[in-house]
Amino acid sequence: MTAVPQAERPATHLAARAAGRADADPHDTDSAPTPTTKSTMDRDSRALETALAVYVRQVAGQLGVPADAVTYEVTDTATAYIGLTDRAAALPRRDLMLVWDESLGWYVAVEPRGNDRPPVICHLGGEIAPAPALVARFVSDVVDGHSRGRLNPVSPKIDRGTLAVDMAKSPA
Questions:
Q1: Which residues have C-beta within 8 Å of that of residue 25, sequence separation ≥ 6?
Q2: Burial, 159: exposed, middle or buried (Cβ in 10 Å; 0-12, 13-18, 19+)?
Q3: Per-domain residue ranges for the chain?
Q4: What residues have CB less than 8 Å from 169, skipping those under 6 apart?
Q5: Coil, strand or helix: which one is 169?
Q6: For a disulfide at 15, which of 42, 81, 133, 143, Cβ 3.0-4.6 Å?
Q7: Longest dimension (CA), the chain
Protein backbone atom coordinates (compact mmCIF):
# COMPACT_ATOMS: atom_id res chain seq x y z
CA MET A 1 0.00 0.00 0.00
CA THR A 2 1.27 3.49 -0.78
CA ALA A 3 0.75 6.81 0.92
CA VAL A 4 -2.39 8.50 -0.33
CA PRO A 5 -2.45 12.21 -1.23
CA GLN A 6 -4.97 14.38 0.64
CA ALA A 7 -7.32 14.71 -2.34
CA GLU A 8 -7.99 10.97 -2.20
CA ARG A 9 -8.43 10.68 1.58
CA PRO A 10 -11.29 11.55 3.92
CA ALA A 11 -11.20 15.00 5.53
CA THR A 12 -10.35 13.56 8.96
CA HIS A 13 -6.66 13.29 8.28
CA LEU A 14 -4.35 12.42 11.18
CA ALA A 15 -1.48 14.64 10.05
CA ALA A 16 -3.74 17.68 9.99
CA ARG A 17 -5.08 16.81 13.43
CA ALA A 18 -1.59 16.12 14.71
CA ALA A 19 -0.42 19.50 13.53
CA GLY A 20 -3.40 21.12 15.29
CA ARG A 21 -5.08 22.10 12.05
CA ALA A 22 -8.12 19.81 11.97
CA ASP A 23 -10.50 22.75 11.94
CA ALA A 24 -8.59 24.71 9.30
CA ASP A 25 -10.36 25.43 6.05
CA PRO A 26 -8.10 24.17 3.25
CA HIS A 27 -9.62 26.80 0.95
CA ASP A 28 -8.77 29.68 3.29
CA THR A 29 -6.05 31.62 1.51
CA ASP A 30 -5.78 34.46 4.05
CA SER A 31 -2.93 32.73 5.88
CA ALA A 32 -1.27 31.24 2.79
CA PRO A 33 1.86 32.91 1.45
CA THR A 34 1.21 35.28 -1.42
CA PRO A 35 2.76 33.73 -4.54
CA THR A 36 4.09 35.77 -7.40
CA THR A 37 1.76 33.87 -9.73
CA LYS A 38 -0.78 31.11 -9.22
CA SER A 39 1.07 28.84 -11.66
CA THR A 40 4.31 29.24 -9.69
CA MET A 41 2.52 28.32 -6.47
CA ASP A 42 0.83 25.33 -8.11
CA ARG A 43 4.11 24.14 -9.64
CA ASP A 44 5.99 24.53 -6.35
CA SER A 45 3.22 22.79 -4.39
CA ARG A 46 3.17 19.88 -6.85
CA ALA A 47 6.96 19.61 -6.69
CA LEU A 48 6.81 19.67 -2.89
CA GLU A 49 4.09 17.02 -2.80
CA THR A 50 6.17 14.72 -5.01
CA ALA A 51 9.34 15.30 -2.99
CA LEU A 52 7.48 14.96 0.32
CA ALA A 53 5.99 11.62 -0.75
CA VAL A 54 9.42 10.19 -1.53
CA TYR A 55 11.06 11.74 1.55
CA VAL A 56 8.41 10.54 3.99
CA ARG A 57 8.53 7.01 2.54
CA GLN A 58 12.32 7.04 3.02
CA VAL A 59 11.92 8.12 6.66
CA ALA A 60 9.26 5.45 7.23
CA GLY A 61 11.53 2.86 5.62
CA GLN A 62 14.37 3.80 7.97
CA LEU A 63 11.95 3.34 10.89
CA GLY A 64 10.52 0.05 9.61
CA VAL A 65 7.04 1.58 9.48
CA PRO A 66 4.67 0.18 6.82
CA ALA A 67 3.28 2.49 4.14
CA ASP A 68 -0.27 2.20 5.50
CA ALA A 69 0.87 4.09 8.64
CA VAL A 70 2.12 7.04 6.57
CA THR A 71 0.19 10.05 5.30
CA TYR A 72 1.12 13.42 3.90
CA GLU A 73 -0.55 16.45 2.37
CA VAL A 74 0.36 19.70 0.74
CA THR A 75 -2.36 22.33 1.08
CA ASP A 76 -1.95 25.70 2.76
CA THR A 77 0.57 23.90 5.00
CA ALA A 78 2.58 20.82 4.09
CA THR A 79 2.46 18.09 6.74
CA ALA A 80 3.32 14.42 7.12
CA TYR A 81 2.37 11.80 9.68
CA ILE A 82 4.04 8.49 10.51
CA GLY A 83 2.39 6.23 13.08
CA LEU A 84 5.22 4.78 15.13
CA THR A 85 5.27 1.13 16.14
CA ASP A 86 7.48 1.77 19.17
CA ARG A 87 6.35 3.31 22.43
CA ALA A 88 8.32 5.47 24.81
CA ALA A 89 9.46 3.75 27.99
CA ALA A 90 7.99 6.64 30.00
CA LEU A 91 4.59 6.23 28.26
CA PRO A 92 4.16 2.48 27.67
CA ARG A 93 0.39 2.67 27.17
CA ARG A 94 0.31 5.51 24.65
CA ASP A 95 0.89 5.34 20.92
CA LEU A 96 3.42 7.71 19.42
CA MET A 97 3.50 9.57 16.13
CA LEU A 98 6.20 11.28 14.15
CA VAL A 99 4.95 14.47 12.53
CA TRP A 100 6.58 16.76 9.98
CA ASP A 101 5.48 20.30 9.26
CA GLU A 102 7.06 22.65 6.73
CA SER A 103 7.53 25.30 9.45
CA LEU A 104 8.40 23.08 12.43
CA GLY A 105 10.25 20.15 10.92
CA TRP A 106 10.04 16.77 12.69
CA TYR A 107 8.68 16.08 16.15
CA VAL A 108 7.54 13.07 18.14
CA ALA A 109 4.23 13.41 19.95
CA VAL A 110 1.75 11.24 21.79
CA GLU A 111 -1.20 10.23 19.63
CA PRO A 112 -4.09 12.47 20.67
CA ARG A 113 -7.25 11.16 22.23
CA GLY A 114 -10.25 12.67 20.49
CA ASN A 115 -9.63 16.23 19.38
CA ASP A 116 -6.97 16.92 22.01
CA ARG A 117 -3.81 18.62 20.88
CA PRO A 118 -1.03 16.00 20.85
CA PRO A 119 1.52 16.41 23.64
CA VAL A 120 4.92 16.90 22.01
CA ILE A 121 7.66 14.76 23.52
CA CYS A 122 10.58 16.07 21.51
CA HIS A 123 11.36 18.26 18.52
CA LEU A 124 14.24 17.64 16.12
CA GLY A 125 15.87 21.03 15.63
CA GLY A 126 18.20 22.01 12.84
CA GLU A 127 17.30 21.41 9.22
CA ILE A 128 13.71 21.37 8.01
CA ALA A 129 14.31 18.14 6.06
CA PRO A 130 17.28 16.25 7.54
CA ALA A 131 18.46 12.93 6.13
CA PRO A 132 16.02 10.07 6.85
CA ALA A 133 18.71 8.19 8.81
CA LEU A 134 19.12 11.20 11.12
CA VAL A 135 15.35 11.30 11.68
CA ALA A 136 15.39 7.57 12.52
CA ARG A 137 18.19 8.10 15.07
CA PHE A 138 16.19 10.96 16.59
CA VAL A 139 13.12 8.72 16.98
CA SER A 140 15.22 5.95 18.51
CA ASP A 141 16.70 8.41 21.02
CA VAL A 142 13.25 9.72 21.93
CA VAL A 143 11.80 6.22 22.38
CA ASP A 144 14.79 5.27 24.55
CA GLY A 145 14.22 8.36 26.69
CA HIS A 146 17.42 10.16 25.70
CA SER A 147 15.81 13.24 24.15
CA ARG A 148 13.26 15.72 25.37
CA GLY A 149 12.54 19.13 23.98
CA ARG A 150 10.12 21.87 23.10
CA LEU A 151 8.35 22.53 19.84
CA ASN A 152 10.03 25.46 18.09
CA PRO A 153 10.18 26.50 14.45
CA VAL A 154 13.40 25.31 12.85
CA SER A 155 14.18 28.22 10.58
CA PRO A 156 12.52 30.94 8.59
CA LYS A 157 10.07 29.46 6.11
CA ILE A 158 11.61 28.76 2.72
CA ASP A 159 9.71 28.65 -0.53
CA ARG A 160 8.23 25.31 -1.50
CA GLY A 161 10.30 24.94 -4.66
CA THR A 162 13.53 25.21 -2.67
CA LEU A 163 12.17 22.84 -0.01
CA ALA A 164 11.28 20.27 -2.67
CA VAL A 165 14.83 20.46 -4.09
CA ASP A 166 16.31 20.09 -0.58
CA MET A 167 14.17 17.00 0.10
CA ALA A 168 15.13 15.43 -3.19
CA LYS A 169 18.84 15.87 -2.32
CA SER A 170 18.44 14.28 1.11
CA PRO A 171 20.27 10.93 1.21
CA ALA A 172 18.30 7.93 2.40
A1: none
A2: middle
A3: 35-169
A4: none
A5: helix
A6: 81
A7: 49
For residues 97-107, b (16+ Cβ closer than 10 Å) or e, as one string?
bbbbbbebbbb
Residues 6+ apart with CB under 8 A from 67: 1, 2, 3, 57, 60
Q: How far are the Cα atoms of 31, 118, 149 from residue 74, in angstroms, in the given order?
A: 14, 20, 26
Q: In 3D, which of 118, 114, 116, 89 has the Cα closest to residue 104?
A: 118
Q: Which residues contact 72 (CB under 8 A, 6 or more apart)?
A: 3, 5, 6, 15, 49, 52, 53, 56, 78, 79, 80, 81, 100
pLDDT tens per residue across span 62-95: 999 999 999 999 998 899 999 998 876 666 678 8
pLDDT digits (tens, 9 = 90+) for 142-163: 888 876 555 455 555 677 888 8
- Sequence-distant (6+) residues with CB within 8 A of 132 are 55, 58, 59, 61, 62, 170, 171, 172
Separation of alpha carbons 107 and 122, rounded Å: 6
The residue type found at 137 is R
> Of how many residues is the chain composed?
172
Q: How far apart are CA 125 and CA 149, in angstroms?
A: 9
For the chain, helix, strand, coil in percent to 5 are 35, 15, 50
Cα separation, 37 vs 123, in Å, equals 34
